[in-house]
Design goal:
252 residues, eight-stranded parallel beta sheet, 8 strands, alpha/beta, TIM Barrel
């Protein structure tokens, strides 16, 4: 059985002081929830205070990006060993990184392999734009990104990867995919590709999340489908009144 997984992507919000305040609102509701792997992904500057506050709980900490090199003259970048001191997880290939900062499938793949090599759990994001969705090429885009992102990752390592299907047209727009539509992509495209590449047993071990305008009012609809193993939550993860019910819905 795959354990449910809910990650909060705080994006470029919350100073260290604001992160502490948010944790004071989140922790009382989150620590009592069982059966869900909960991960908080704050900005780099808030990782240390968040890690300190969740110490002793089962709540994990993740980063939102990283460089693939372990060290070097890469001004402004953060290396995997730097994250591994405080984090267990790292979001890679988010559509905002691809769209705003020109990240390519090749660079995302380098990061995935580097994360695994440094003991981090990569949360690999894939998803199509509205134009691609309307053109009927969702399968082509999602499979290409998944295949490229996992290139060189062998069967032994694949169970350590988390995949997040995030249709770009649903992120931050308030326009979520339907639960049925998300399941069709996750089960019929991503997991089916994993099975054809790594075998059914390995494919069934990989957790695949949905992300894109997930909120307390719709999370339960997605989690009704057994192939949707949880959510990568954006804006709603910044509000205790939204994030806690989402995690509770995943626990059910």
């Amino acid at each position: 059985m795959r354990r449910s997984f809910v990650a909060g992507n705080w994006k470029m919000y919350k100073t260290a002081a604001e992160a502490r305040l948010l944790l004071s609102e989140l922790l009382p509701g989150l620590v009592s929830i069982k059966g869900v792997e909960i991960v908080l992904c704050p900005p780099f500057t808030s990782i240390l205070p968040v890690a300190s506050l969740v110490e002793g709980t089962e709540i994990g900490v993740g980063a939102q990006n990283m460089h693939w090199e372990a060290s070097g003259a890469f001004t402004g970048e953060v290396a995997p060993p730097m994250l591994a001191e405080f984090c267990k997880y790292v979001i890679l290939g988010h559509s905002e990184r691809r769209g705003y900062f020109g990240e390519t499938d090749e660079n995302v793949n380098r990061k995935v392999k580097s994360a695994l090599a440094h003991g981090l759990v990569p949360i690999l994001c894939v998803g199509e734009t509205l134009t691609e969705n309307e053109a009927g090429v969702t399968r082509d885009v999602v499979i290409r990104q998944t295949q490229a992102g996992l290139s060189g990752v062998d069967t032994r390592a694949i169970a350590s990867v988390v995949i997040a299907y995030e249709p770009v047209w649903a992120i931050g727009t308030g326009r979520a995919a339907t639960a049925e539509g998300a399941n069709a992509v996750i089960a019929g495209m991503i997991r089916a590709w994993l099975a054809s590449t790594y075998g059914d047993e390995a494919a069934q071990s990989v957790r695949i999340l949905y992300g894109g305008s997930v909120k307390a009012s719709n999370a339960g609809e997605f989690f009704q489908y057994p192939d949707i193993d949880g959510a990568l939550v954006g804006g709603a993860s910044l509000k205790a009144t939204e994030f806690i019910p989402i995690v509770k819905a995943a626990a059910r």
